[in-house]
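Field notebook, page 224. I keep forgetting to write these up properly, so this time I am using the form the group agreed on. The chain and the ligand, zinc ion, are recorded exactly as supplied. Prediction of the bound pose follows.
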Amino acid sequence: MTPEPNPSPSPISAASQGLASCHVCGKVSPVTVGHCPRCDTPLHLRKPQSLERTWAFLIAAVILYIPANTMPIMTVQGIGGAEKNTILSGVVRFWEMKSYPVAIVIFTASVLIPLLKVIALVWLCLAARGRSQTAPRSLSRLYHITELLGRWSMVDVFVVAILVCLVQLGAIMTITPGPAALCFSAVVILTMFSAMSFDPRLIWDRHHEKPNPSSSLPSLPTNE
Ligand SMILES: [Zn+2]
């Protein structure tokens, strides 16, 4: 009796064949060459110290998230004197002024998205270390959403810029950015670096490393 053919053969990774894709131009070459033949970038099977870098940027972002939310992000100079607002008190103020769309945009872009990004990256790092049972396909999707949000985080910077212009035009009150604006920009940039440092292939490596009778893939070197 002939054995049943495996309906879904395990995919063979490039890394298991000693092939590395260049981090800069994407050209696939044998890792033994050392440098990309096209652009001379050092070749690695996986981004070197990917998780360590991701954690470092993430921890820095979390630390700066505290002053970004507790220090004043803007000073509103009106007829009744100067008023300092944090992100949340600003949201409350816009809500009270019945500027609901502005309040919702600021809350989503400045509080919710950075927080969700940090949670997603922590989850991905834990999964790459084998601390989560989530399916690799879902984790991959989570990573792509996080990366996409990284690009859209620049919305926050535009929101602040547009807001300042709009209010200055009104000539009734002036808004000047406070120290939290700087911390907040740093949070956005650090979470972007964190997402860029993460190597999503680590999730699949972890998946293939699991003892699986139908697969006979060699275990992969995770670094250089
Ligand atoms: Zn290259």
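OBSERVATIONS:
- Residues 18-45 form one domain.
- The chain is about 55% helix and 10% strand.
FOLLOW-UP: compare against the apo run.
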